[in-house]
Amino acid sequence: MSEPFLPEGPGPAPEGRPGGEASGRRAGRHFGFPRWGPGRRPVRNRLLAAGAVLVALLAALALAAPWVAGADPSEQLDPVAGRYLPPGSRRVPVVFADGRTLLAERAVRRGDRLVVERLGRIEAYPVASLAGGPEAVPAPPRTFPLGTDRFSRDVWARLVWGARVSLAVGVLAALLAATLGTLVGAAAAAGGRWLDGTLMRLVDAALAVPRLFLLVALVALFRPGAAAIVLILGGTAWMSVSRLVRAEILGVQGRDYVLAARAAGQHPLRVLVRHLLPNALTPLLVGVGLLVGNVILVESALSFLGLGLPPPMPSWGDMISSGADRLVDAWWVATFPGIAIVVTVVAFNLLADGLRDALDPRG
Fold this sequence. Notes:
This protein is mainly alpha-helical and 363 residues long. It is built from 13 helices and 8 strands. Helix 4 crosses helix 8. The N terminus is likely disordered.
């Protein structure tokens, strides 16, 4: 009687690949892409890198504003002929001895006269009336890469200086909110049941007040400057940070190393600073990154309403407000600062999300 047919077993595995090709497929390979775990890490790293690069570029642009802007953001060259010039416009600045400046399409010196083409008309001015005196020659044309606004101010210069203002306000206010929130959250988590209940009820009461309404009321009543804007924005954004820090500290208070430190007789403040607060740093960093973008949005909204930073300080929200009624024929005045706000907020959100994934030990 013949033996029953038995399927052949797997042949010897190729060198360097135990278990053969089928085992290699079972190990998590599917159409060339990993199914779980380490396969997602490069995506997270790319998000972190993209956010870090964008934030670094914005910071470098803000720090280099005096050299990159190329002009004073508050300079009004020619409110008649220089208003609402489209992006890429070139004009010849004609500076007179009395301080006046005209923007002309063309300027040519002919003898003792300077012939200027401005607003479609030909005008001639004595060379002696110019800033350079009898030896004056036409200045080289000036380019406005992003156009001008209604007061003939350079939109590019205001955008660059506005980056410095917005980033400074956002970062300083976020750091202030993080400091206040960390102090309150740590005190609530480590101060006992009575202090915890009191502080958290105060936080609940503060969160019950609409923040935007409170900001508008404070700014409208006191009309503060840049420093006061930072204090107001930071002083109204710490409540969520305090809850985050409290939750993180309460989550690690029962860990073995914390109980061991307390059993060893360490001071409660030392236990808090050395063992509890470091565990709240990761979510705190993520929260601060998200808070910077939120503060920039709130500051832009206040400036759009005319309640933000006082003029002539450039602000992206104020630039959007000044061009909101001319979107059809002068779209560049409001569009470019709007794009800047979107890019800045997205950059900080990407950075925060990337930090969360990179610092998460369970990732």
